[in-house]
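Deliverable D4.2, example record:
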Amino acid sequence: MTTPADTTSTTSTATPSTPLRIGLLGTGPWARNTQAPALAAHPGVELSGVWGRRAEAAEALATAHGTRAYTGEAGIDALLEASDAVAFALPPDIQAPLAVRAAEAGCHILMDKPVATTVEGARAVAEAAEKAGVASVVFCTLRFAPETSAWIAEQTALGGWFTARAQWLGSLYAEGSASEYADSPWRREKGGLWDVGPHALSVLIPVLGEVEHLTAARGPADTTHLILRHTSGASSTVTLGLSAPPAAAGMDIEVRGEHGVAGVPGWDGAAAAFRGAVDALSEAVRTGVPHACDARFGLRLTELLAEAESQAAR
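Output generated by the structure prediction step:
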C-alpha cells in the first residue's frame, strides 16, 4: 500500500531579473538537442551559462548558443551566482544533490525526470526547495507539451473515468538501435520503469487521482507492468519498457468512463514541451504559486517508482 506524500508547498520569495537568467547543467544529448536550444531561443530567458563535467563539451555547447562555459566545482558555484534559475540535463542521482545545492543558493530549479532514483534523494530536493522558498518544476514531457497538457486538463475537468490504460514502449535497447540515448548508464541500469514511467504517471495521476495502491510485475527484458488503484475509484494499467522490437514500440494512453473513450493526442516534440516547462517555472516564480508538477510531485513519482521496482524485483 502506498500513501501520498505531504502536499504542503512553500511559495517562492525570490525576485528574478527580467529576462529570467537560467543556467544549464549538463552537456549530453538531451542538453544539446532540447534544453540548450529551447533556453537560448526563449524570448523571456537569458541562457546565463552552461556547466559540464568535461570542459570541452561545455565550451562547445556554450559557444553554439552564445553564452559562457563553466566546469569544475567552482564553476557550479559561479553559474549559480550568475543565474536566477538552473535547468538540469544530468543523470537523476547527480541531478538531485546539485538541485539541493542550487535551491540553497537561492536558484529556482527546472529538473528532468525522475528527480532521483531514491526516495531519500528526491525528498532532499523537495525539502530544500520548500525551505529556500524557490520555485521548482519537473519536466514530465506530457504535462507541458501544449497539445497533451490541454488534453490532461480537459479530462481532469470532465471526470467520471472508470479505468485507463497506458503503454510506453521504446526500442532504445533493441537489436540494431543506434540511439545516442542508449549510451546513458542510468537508463540501462534502471530501464523503462524509471525513464518513461514518470511520463505515464504524470498523466494518470491528475486525471484519475492519487495512487492509493500499486502492484508491479516484471515482463520481458526491462519491461514492467503496473496495476494502479486511484483515489477516484478508477483503476489503471501501465506497461513500460525500453527494449521492445522496433515494430512494437510506441506510446498510447487512453481513459474510459461515463463519457466514452479519450486517447492522448500527439505532440510537437520535446523542444516545444520544454518551452512550456520554462513558461511554467517563470509563472511560478512570478506568482509564487507552486506548479502542480513541482519537486513535491517529483518526490511522489519517485516513491511510486521505488515501490514498483521493489515489488517487481520480488
